[in-house]
Amino acid sequence: MLTDRRKQLLKHIVEEYVETAQPVGSRALVDKYELPLSSATIRNEMAALEDEGLVAQPHTSAGRVPTDTGYRYYVEALMPEEELTEDLRQTIRHQFHQAARELEEWARLAAAILATRLRNAAVVTTPHSPEPRVRWIELVGVHDYLALLIVVLEEARVLQQTLTLDEPFTQEELTSLARRLNNLVAGKSAAEISEQKIALSPAEVSVRQATSALLKAADELTPEPSFMDGVRDLLKQPEFTEGGRVVDLLGVLEERSLSKAIPVAAGSDMG
DNA sequence: CGTGAAGGGCGACCATTTGC
DNA sequence: GCAAATGGTCGCCCTTCACG
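Above: the input entities. Below: the structure tokens describing the complete assembly.
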């Protein structure tokens, strides 16, 4: 638990660093915010915040910069929250209602809404587990010897693949087979499924192998989808234009160290 | 009410780093 | 190499609180 004074100090450090992209010194804080404390006291408090892992010091005589943990604390506990009006809530609900019921479409829409509200660039990623796990599987008969395997992951992604079967199956038999396998693979990763040593029918073995292969492919090949919007708003800021034309964005970012200073609020949790 | 311990804050001094 | 900026540490002072 941070004292109120340390919370206030962390808030000043984060806001100052986001604004200037320079380490924040104790005297600078006292002067700018007219704190009723000496710089020595501020240094002691900064040292306490450093012990908590909320700020860090690039080198011995430098000021402090917020750590990832510090940014997270700021966002969750210190950043002033803007209350959305009921009209705006209604509009956002309507926009999501209109969107296709696909996760990536929702993420794209979330990026667009965030960028519009913040008048800045916004990045949204879909949930991504470091090790995909099965939530459940389904089998849909396409033809006597052909079935569609649908694998739903715990991270809300859906994978599918057609399977050629050695013998004909009715839909009832496929549903029953999927139900039995769900007891074995639900909550499991590809490695855990492969390690299972349980007597299975040839068709069950085939489906289990296909499920495991799909999981591995999803883990290795599919990059984490991310969606960005609002870059145009970022480029409108005076720092990024020169004589009416857009200057080299990366150059400006590097020059001002903004790539390190800007805390990116990423995530698809729309509450 | 007086006294002593503990904690917090401050100023001064020194060490370190950076930029010119 | 030097000046400026910054943090760390030390000793002093003040306030608070417990105790006799």
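Note for the figure: The first strand of chain A starts at residue 55 and ends at 56.
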